[in-house]
Amino acid sequence: MSEQKLPLDKNGAPHQDASNGYEVLTTSHGVPIGNNQSHLRVGEVGPLLMEDFHFREKIFHFDHERIPERVVHARGYGAHGFFETTTELSEITSADIFQRKNEKTPVFVRFSTVVGSKGSADLARDVRGFAVKFYTKEGNWDLVGNNIPVFFIQDPIKFPDLVHSVKEEPDRGFPQAQSAHDNFWDFISLSPESMHMVMWVMSDRTIPRSLRFMEGFGVHTFRFVNKKGKSTFVKFHWKPKLGVQSVVWDEAVKINGADPDFHRRDLWDAISKGDFPEWELGIQTFDEKFAESYDFSILDPTKLIPEEIIPLKIVGRLVLDRVVDNFFAETEQVAFLTHNIVPGIDFTDDPLLQGRNFSYLDTQLKRLGSPNFAHLPINAPKCPMHAFHQDGHMTTNNREGRVNYEPNSWGKAIGGPRESREQGFISFPEVISGEKLRIRPEAFADHYSQARQFYLSQSALEKKHIADALIFELSKVETPMIRERTVGHLRNIDNDFALTVSNKLV
Ligand code: HEM
User: Fold this and answer.
1) Collapsed DSSP state (helix, strand, coil) of residue 462
2) Rounded distance from Cα 349 to ligand 1 centre (Å)
3) What are the counts of helices (DSSP H) followed by strands (DSSP E) for the chain?
4) Mean pLDDT throughout 129-144?
5) Among 208, 259, 271, 350, which residue has the least CB neighbours within 10 Å?
6) Is 73 a catalytic residue?
7) Which residues contact 305 (CB under 8 A, 6 or more apart)?
8) How many Å apart are CA 149 and CA 246, to the nearest integer?
9) What's this model's pTM, rounded to 2 decimal places?
10) How many CB atoms lie within 10 A of CB 152?
11) CB-CB contact of 347 with 341 (8 Å)
């Protein structure tokens, strides 16, 4: 945050009350205030006067303090830090951030739960968002990930239905921050593609010990593109230096009651006392040949590539070393956009990623209320920014001078910026052809193999925790048909496991 300037008096000195040394309270237009305790009125108990501009400004501002909370991931907590490149990657990407070992790039990270409202409790069983804004020298790169490596759905057209189903039911307005209800499991039982993610969500991963003990994943396959224009597929992973830890369900329930701010308090306390949380950035890289030979489509966001098949290469570290100065200005107003990528990084045709690229810009306008949300200090790039955008609500950085268009013939001195073929972002020239269809690819059809693989990879205790979670959730489902359909899917994952769950439903 930039330092707040004291309002100046007529002689250019800060307002200061000579009698007590305090700064003088002012209106937001800098007018010193003589009385902040009583409204201007006629006589002792007479009517209040509209003329009281201080009251009107104060109430006006208060009345407009709330902005819409995020439609998902409303409850979050952010911190500042840096990313240090530990491996130079110029062979596979021209991204400036990966060109020099030991280079530090400022970051802002926001962790979140998905389902609950802003005031919900930290230890709800839920996926955690892990969104990182890198303020690189070539613009902001937002890696907007989760603490689980796969997602519920394969097609963005299903996202509003997924979110409606898991949020509170619309007639009764509950349950809050809970997936244990009919609507969610109805949607899930009719969407077999969600079964892999459901197994992760029912595991201890969704009740983390603290935000400092969580992994993070970019989920989608992205591209790196090098200076020669060669593309390499890449998946991003955050590995916590402290390891992965969770609480057990009974602890989660108790903590939610005793300290609903448990996770945000933990992060604030750790950073404030200098115990800076740290993650390593790992990448899995592969080429078209691997993509074609792999058992699953690398564009299917419900699938992962096991580290046993493509091991992680550690390329950097993320350290969070500064708490926010103001929660609203930074954590609330930060606006992540999956389309914020930089030269050397590009998208793939993962349909969910493509859908997200539309959604985030759209939602930021609704939430922050102006196309100028990038003028806010938390969202503004830390590198130079030269554009011909102008005006709109809350403009703070219109260009100076008469030129607001391009091309123009006004010359370098006043004509403003020009595009650059050498430095500018150029999309990877992927060859694409095909019919226009509204379909789900055949290559996305196997919904159970990786769900089973995840289940089998768990220890006996972890398996029990998954079964217990399902028993709890499905026992809250009132409609037998929804329970039956869900257990039917579990049978495709592991028959004994399905029986364990169904036998204990109450
Ligand atoms: C089609 C699928 C998806 C759509 C349409 C979608 C849409 C949204 C929207 C509208 C928000 C609120 C943003 C805001 O108000 O600032 C959001 C937040 C978020 N989404 Fe998604 N999302 C999708 C899938 C995903 C996936 C797959 C991930 C993880 C890889 C993810 C991670 C996040 C995170 C971390 C946030 C919170 C960002 C923050 O901390 O401000 N979303 N999403």
Assistant:
1) helix
2) 18
3) 14, 10
4) 98
5) 259
6) yes
7) 235, 284, 286, 294, 298
8) 17
9) 0.95
10) 26
11) yes
The pLDDT of residue 12 is 54
State how far the Cα of 471 lies from the Cα of 317, in Å rounded to an integer: 39
Peptide bond into 407 cis (omega under 30): yes
146-190 residue pLDDT tens: 999 999 999 999 999 999 999 999 999 999 999 999 999 999 999
Measured CA to CA, the distance from residue 339 to residue 364 in angstroms comes to: 12
Please tell me the distance between residue 131's alpha carbon and the centre of ligand 1 in angstroms: 9
Instruction: Tell me the average pLDDT across 37-55.
Output: 96
Quote the mean pLDDT of the chain: 96
- What is the best residue among 337, 360, 376 to mutate for testing ligand 1's pocket, by most ligand atoms within 8 Å of CB? 360
Active-site entry in 80, 140, 146, 181: 146
Minimum CA distance residue for ligand 1 atom 29: 145
Written as six digits, the tokens of 423 are 């430095």
Distance in angstroms (rounded) separating the CA atoms of residues 130 and 77: 10
What pLDDT digit, counting tens, does each position of 51-78 carry? Answer: 999 999 999 999 999 999 999 999 999 9
pLDDT attached to residue 1 = 41
Domains recognised in the chain with CATH numbers? 76-375 (2.40.180.10), 447-503 (1.20.1370.20)
Is the per-residue pLDDT at 16 higher than 80? no
Nearest-atom index, ligand 1, CA of 73: 37
pLDDT at 11: 52
